[in-house]
Amino acid sequence: MLWYRAPAEQFVESLPVGNGLTGATLRGLAGGERVQLNEGSAWSGPTDRSAPLLDPADGTARLQAVREAIDAGDVRRAEDLLMAFQSTHSQAYLPFAVVSVEAAGTAAPADGPARWLDLRTGIAGHRYLLDGSEARHRTFASHPDAVIVHDIAFGAPADLRIGISPDKIAARGMDAVTQDWGTELRLGVVLPADVAPSHEQTAEPVVYGPDSRAGAVHAGIVTDGEAGFAHGVLGIRGATFVRIVVATGTVLNHPYARHANTADDADALARLLSARIAGVLEEESFEPAMERHLADHAGLYSRVSLELGGGSTAAAGKPTDERIHAFETDRSDSALMALLFHYGRYLLIASSRAGGFPANLQGIWNEQLQPPWSSNYTININTQMNYWPALTTNLAECHETLLRLVDTLARTGTAAAGLYGARGWAAHHNTDPWGHPFAVGAGKGNAMWASWAMGGTWLADSVWRHYSYTGDLARLQASWPALEGAALFALDWIIGEADSGTHTSPSTSPENRFVADDGGPAAVGRSATMDVSLLSALCASARQVAAVLGAPVPWLDDLTRKVAALPQPAIGGRGEVLEWSFPATEHEPEHRHTSHLAGLFPLQEWSLEATPELAAAAVRTLELRGPESTGWAMAWRLGLWAHLGVAGKAEESLHLALRVAGDGLTERGGVYPNLFTAHPPFQIDANFGTTAGIAEMLVQSDAAAIRLLPALPAAWGEGSVRGLRAVGGIGVDLRWSGGVLGSAVLRSPEAVRRDVVWDGRRVSVELAGGEDFELSEDSFL
């Protein structure tokens, strides 16, 4: 439960609800509400302005020139040549509309909580006194019915006004329709055809034109008061209850953006939205709709529980914002850490569901027309981090939207691969639902972020990972073309022959730079460590999928040989993992990215047991990189320390993640009053990464073993967790006391033998399909 004594004054104080299709944030205002709506399909674009600057026919020759410049040590020429491969930019996720509710009379705070969000039910609420009588609001987002419901109950008859307005985008028209069940307000909007990132200096950053798409908000209203529509506002007199049901959507005009909230034309969209509202508001329909929502939400959320003991419990009785401030000086509120864990799962359920798009940089909630980094998909870490908790915390259904984005990019990305003269598909560091595959930057983008062609390679890792937890053979077969296309691109991207050594070129380590021979910062070289880790993981995934599907894969042996011949991760003079394939002075020694450690986590190619030298070097790398950074970077450090089994450092990262977020664009992460995580500004990846990191502290797994409590802090003296998932879809429930395992219950969907490790001790167990298997401390004697 999140709760507060006062209304929200800004976006990062508001409380979020979402059904994966539509999101809303609530302010909990005294005397009304401001329901700020986001529609998951409301993106700018599509636009033809996203083509690369370079004529595709010239790509192969230009790439060869880049490689020759790198081989000659002329990094400046290589970076200049690479700019021609850039396009303008990918598209932006947009704000959508606001439903405003204003009650007449004198509003005053009520005693006790003013507003709250119950993560268990997905219902947000608030209360106040209106002319001395209590008024209560509640809001939830139903995935089964694809609507947002806002209920108001007044202690005495009240008058109020309800309106809908576009949120920073163009209006298309507003009207009201009388239905058998009440009144339906309808707002039409127009989406920009193109929106430039806020960091770009462009003469016309927001463009409307022939490619602009239409959108709509329908709000159905039932009340026991007298309602009348005038001047774009619905007035209601003498109401003791009002129910508002909201449906949103956009008109589709792009083949890759299939979405449950889109329709082929405006008339079809209007029918879709009105039907959704009627299905909830018609007589005797609401209670079944509420039950569907509660069952659907609990069916996902209640799978996992976490209780952390050992700290003070006094803080749990304070409002959430006060708890966050208190945590700055008193780190004993272990229940706040558990709340942050649960909140990450709640946010993923709310922002990534079947029929929708993947969670973007802000999940499904955004208030700005030019949001930070376009609120799109940054696929050199951030989009991947959004899905780190999906499989381990038992939300595999939420992972499906990411796989659909991979399917889309496997189609659109053939153009990006072809630009390099390669087969298969490629994607760079930014994309959107239209599947933008090219490097962005409009010929001005710095190579440290623009010239990274491994986005598709990393996303392809999700294919095998999904199957390894779910055993979903049909989804694996559907994903095979994407995995095969990523592998074919890798085959053509890797240079050289296996018997004489191979490399990748050009190669960058995302967003980081080294000091070049001329003394300035540079990004481009050969075979960055992250390249090798990603390609190694891709090769392993392809081999495992091919074995499961049993299909002949003529290119697999060639890929295996080429990947094995790449320069392997090396250890530098300070005992650290080298970020590039050569010793280099880091331009930013405490840079936020830890891309060269991806082989450790999340890829799990390195481990304490199998690669102890690299694991030790990773420890030294993290020490040199430092604990302080942006929100998502600290979440990555949390996962890395947890995977290394260093509980104290993992706990330190978690403590930093729960600081009060600072203002501005400093690289100091933390949380806002509503527990949204800060880059800063708000960026949701750290919410998800922190949830995954806590899970990693409690359970780790791979094909070799399941590891119990591998990074348990001493401060978590007693606790329990239920419902985490290990590789193979194995459920794991744990209880511990005094840092000692009390019990572990494993349940596998099918019969399997697994090794289980606790406190450095290993046992092998036979799990019968569908049955609980219990272990205790004595099992490891």
From TrEMBL:
Gene3D superfamilies named in the record: 1.50.10.10
Domain Glycosyl hydrolase family 95 catalytic: 286-698
Example GO biological process: carbohydrate metabolic process
UniProt superkingdom: Bacteria
Molecular function terms from GO: alpha-L-fucosidase activity
InterPro entries associated with the record: 6-hairpin_glycosidase_sf, 6hp_glycosidase-like_sf, AFCA-like_C, Alpha-L-fucosidase, GH95_cat, GH95_N_dom
Domain Alpha fucosidase A-like C-terminal as annotated: residue spans: 700-755
Pfam families xref list: Glyco_hyd_65N_2, Glyco_hydro_95_C, Glyco_hydro_95_cat
Domain Glycosyl hydrolase family 95 N-terminal: residue ranges: 2-250
Name listed for the protein in its UniProt record: Alpha-L-fucosidase 2
Organism: Pseudarthrobacter equi
